[in-house]
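Okay, is this right?
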Amino acid sequence: MPEITPAFVATCVLILVVNVGLLVTGRFRVSLFFTAYTAANVIAALLPVFWPRLFYTQAFWILCQALIDLLRIGMVLETSWRIFRAFPGAASVSKYGVLVLLVALIFVSVGMPIAKSPASAFETAIEEFHPITADGTLWMIAATFLVALFYRVPMSPFHRAVLTNLAIYVACWSTLLHLYAHHEFNVYRPYANTINSIVGLLVHSSWAYTIWAPPGKAESAYRHALASLASPYPFGREMSAARPVRHA
């Protein structure tokens, strides 16, 4: 049975608060993969607690972590699509950039052995597969922010919070996995668990606040920017009505 600490309980409660908030506020409609990701985290955390004989195993951990890795990538792809869909130029650059990173990630992952002697499948997964997928996710998030910054694409506060907090947590997770692969991790394991718990609490607290908070000035400015782009007079009626003078 997994160790039930106050940090573990607090994180589970925060994830439930995030899930309920997504349903109550209707924000699940603007990020389906994020909703699936938070739900998967709840299931992966609680099943080993209530049914440890069936689910407190290395095989179940590998399966859950692989699913969570895929949902994180899906979050980035969906959020990127929602951010750039009204901007064809930025959308094209983002699509090809993320596609290149995704193909590279798949190529590296497929070429990786399931298990190499004398390492077990669990050790191979935690030392090689999951760090690679975490690093790939970080690169895709970075590409999304760079394209948005370069093309000055407005980003909703919700999508910005989703990507920023995901990047923070994945960066922490990736660092801990790399330490596991290159050091005697059992020595540092208590400290690593503490760091991971603290970062998880901060990230889910930020998500919970973003989801439950009423729309603020940033949200209003974002909606105004999108409405202006959809308007037949995006630069004002007088400026849009102006025509260049043609000379004979």
